[in-house]
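Handover notes (outgoing to incoming on-call)

Open items:
1. Aldehyde oxidoreductase FAD-binding subunit PaoB: sequence verified, structure written out, both below. Nothing else pending on this one.
2. Nothing else urgent.
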Amino acid sequence: MLPFSMQHALNESEAIEAALSGGRYIAGGTTLIDLMREEVERPERLIDINAVPLDYIREDEGDLIIGALARMSDVAADHVVRRLQPLIAETLVEGASPQLRNMASIGGNLLQRVRCPYFRMLDAPCNKRVPDSGCAAIDGLNAGHAILGGSAHCVATHPSDLAVSLVALEATMRVRGSDGERSFPVEALYRLPGTTPHLEHMLVPGELIIDIRVPGGNHARHARYLKVRDRASYEFALVSTAAALDIVEGVIHDARIACGGVGTKPWRMRACEQVLAGKKPGRTVFEAAGRMAKDGTVPLSGNRYKVGLLERTVIRALEMASEVQS
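Aldehyde oxidoreductase FAD-binding subunit PaoB structure tokens:
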């Protein structure tokens, strides 16, 4: 690990000012410290923001508000979260080991870097690490890579489980920087790689995530997260699906579906949702939605299995969501 300095910010203003002069925010550090050890990330100055009071969890007129510095374990165990948005609690438990959940912050989870092995290999070309150097994964080992949203410059999958469920739930996020405060959907945070895969999100220098708002609604009563992975104890998703259904008098009034492990960002499945609207929940309509999930997929040499697995994961997640007793 290369030398670096550490500054402790006591409030948002101190943190933002320090970041504008070249510092990097750190909370739990579960991703950043690993990358610094491997010299993939080389910040000269870190800004410890743990003293900034952003670790709250509360209800606001039926919506769930989660501060950016709330720890994953605290959010997963919180009674307000489990009552209003049980999908969030389930996703967090599936998303990391207990040790990581105790350290990792909600904001940090949403901004974690990709898990493509070539990103961490300093002797391999990677456009995320060194722009315009090439992408070793396209013709290399790519069994875990994206089948949606990739480009000739990057095919790395987005790693966050939580982001998938937040996108499905149409959550918004509030950020603050030198130009003031703004809010936008969590889905809008993430960029497609295109020709600039090193630009992963829409935050500008110095902006600090303040909190996440998850809107309430009937869909939260029938919601589940299904994660398919190589090992059950702890692993990143090969394919995952967050499904939330608003079922009124035995008919799906509204459906929200997002998938992980298959896209270069959390992937909203709007075509699948349209198939379900106005239908009675059941295997036939769920299979129709699953087939729609395959549209637009572009598999690589090593991950063709993900196309069929995506279809089956969507079907099973919808079944699980429909079976929840409200």
